[in-house]
């Protein structure tokens, strides 16, 4: 989800709720403690220099159980980050601490924002010696010339 997409969704909501992919909800009294721009400059194992830019939201739970972040307040924080930091329309990455600080992609399921698990990947699999994945085919799906094929118990095989 991009920053523009969340800005379009927020005015349509009564509450801001975040849900983990496993169905567990982030506590209702969470805070968005940071919105920022994260730039990652790196080189992959194949020697290609890469640059990745994301908008970062940090969620945090405090002991103020009466706190509820409303959509208008989050929209205000987003507008401030755009104005003061010059943040553009990039994909959003969410930091949230469960057992450790995790980074999540963000989606919307029509009611809640969903923190989607991220996976590591290799950008240069050929440089790592990882063979390309073979296409899986069912033998029964192969269309061959049936006239020239053997059938069981025909004696031709």
Detailed description of the structure:
The protein has 157 residues and is α/β, with parallel strands linked by helices. It has one domain (3-120). It contains 3 helices and 6 strands; from the N terminus they run H-E-E-E-H-E-E-E-H. The chain has helices spanning 3-9, 71-85, 125-128; strands spanning 18-20, 30-43, 49-61, 92-97, 101-108, 113-117. It is elongated, with a radius of gyration of 24 Å. The model has no long low-confidence stretch (mean pLDDT 89). Pfam families: DUF6428.
Task: Count every beta strand, where a strand is a DSSP E run of 2 or more residues.
Answer: 6
Unreliable stretches covering 5 or more consecutive residues: none
Give, in spatial order, the strands making up the sheet with the most strands: 1-6-5-4-3-2
Average residue pLDDT: 89
Overall geometry comes to elongated
Quaternary: single chain
Concise summary:
This protein is of the alpha/beta class.
